[in-house]
Amino acid sequence: MMRPIAISVLAVLACGTPALADTHKFVPSAKGSQTYAVRDPVLRIKSGDVVETNTLFSDFYTAKTGGSGYPGEAGPIFIEGATTDDTLAVKIVRLRPKIDTGRSGTGGRGYAVLTPTTYTAMLTDPTPTRRHIWQINREKLTATLDLPLSQMKRIEVQMSMMLGRLAVAPSGEQAIQGGAPGNYGGNMDSSDAREGTTVYLPIFHEGAYFYYGDAHGLQGDGEITGTGIETQADVTFQFTVIKNKKIAWPRYEDDEFIMVAGSIRPLLDAYRIAHVEMIHWLESDYGFERWEALEVLSQVGVARVANVVDPEFTVMAKFPKKYLPRR
C-alpha cells in the first residue's frame, strides 16, 4: 500500500544523490499576494526541505466591524530543480492555530450559495450581513460562538484545522485571483488539506512557485456561507519534487484515502473531472484496468463537495487505500 513517505523516498531516489535536507524558519511579510503568478520568490529551497512558517494575519480575522480585508497568500516559494516534467509533493507536517479568534459571516448579494446573486434579478431579500467572531482554545483545539438569538445561546465545536489555498503558479503568464481554484490548486477549500495530508500539484513553471494560506479552524462541506472559521495558523511543510511524474489535477493523500480535486463550474463537471482523474491514477499507478477501475470506484468511492462558492466549484474524489494493491 502506498504511503506518503514512500513517495518521498522514491522522489529522492529519482533525483539521484540529494544534498542533505534543510529546515527553513520563514516569517512571511505582512503583505501577501492576491493572485497566483510567477513573481520574485520569497524563499528558495530544494527538494526534501522543511519550511516552518505561518499564514498571514490582518484584522480581517478579529474585527467585529470593519477590518482591513483578507491579507492574501504567502509566497511564492521557489523549489530548486522542479520542472514541468515533475510533480510537487507538499506534506502538511503540522498545522495549528496561531491566534485566539476566527471569523465567519454572511451577508449581501453575490457570494455564498444560499444568497441571491448580484447578477441575476430576484425578488428575495439579501441575506442579513453578519460577522461572527469565534473564540479559539488553542490547547483544546475547540472554537466557541455566542448565539444570542438562538435557544442554546452558545456552541462549542471541535476544530479540524485545514488550509483552503495551496497553489503553484498557473500556466503561461496568467495571474489568477487568490479566491479561484483550478488545475494549479488555488482556493480549493477542501477540508482534506489538514495535518498529515500530502498534496500533489502539477508544475507549470520551473521552480513551481508555491503559494499557501487561508487557514480555517473548521469548515463544513461546501463552505456554504463562503467562509470557514477563518483564522491564522502556524504550519510546517515538507517539499518533495517527484521527478518525471506529471499529473493533470491536484491530488491529495492521507492515511485513509487517495484523492483528486476537480475545480470548475457547473458542479457536475467538477465531479466528472475529479473522478476521471482518479481513474487515470488507478490505472497508471496501481495497475487497474480502466473499466474495472470505474466499477470499483463506483462501489467504494467517496465524494466531498469541497466548495460551492468560489469562482470555480471543487469536488474531491476519494478512493479508500484499503482497496489498493499492497506494495
Detail the topology: elements first, then pairings.
Layout: H1 4-14, E1 23-25, E2 35-36, E3 43-46, E4 50-54, E5 74-80, E6 87-97, E7 101-108, E8 127-137, E9 142-147, E10 153-158, E11 162-168, E12 176-177, E13 181-182, E14 185-187, E15 198-202, E16 210-216, E17 230-231, E18 233-242, E19 251-253, E20 257-264, H2 267-286, H3 290-300, E21 302-307, E22 313-320
Parallel strand pairs: 1-4, 3-5
Antiparallel strand pairs: 2-12, 4-18, 5-16, 6-15, 6-18, 7-8, 8-9, 9-10, 11-14, 11-16, 13-14, 15-19, 16-17, 19-20, 20-22, 21-22
What are its keywords?
327 residues; mainly beta; Jelly Rolls; 2 domains; 3 helices; 22 strands; 13% helix; disordered N terminus
Describe the structure.
This protein is 13% helix and 39% strand. With 327 residues, the chain is mostly beta strands. The chain has 2 domains: 4-100 and 159-323, Jelly Rolls; 101-158, no CATH class. The protein has a 9-stranded mixed beta sheet. Strands 3, 5, 11, 13, 14, 16 and 17 form a 7-stranded mixed beta sheet that branches. α2 (267-286) packs across α3. The radius of gyration is 20 Å and the shape is globular. The model is unreliable at 1-17 (pLDDT under 50).
Q: What is the H/E string?
A: HEEEEEEEEEEEEEEEEEEEEHHEE
State the end-to-end distance: 5 Å
Gyration radius, to the nearest Å? 20 Å
CATH architecture of the largest domain: Sandwich
Percent range for β-strand residues: 35-45%
- Shape assignment: globular
Low-confidence region ranges: 1-17
CATH class category name of the largest domain: Mainly Beta
Q: Could you say what the CATH topology of the largest domain is called?
A: Jelly Rolls
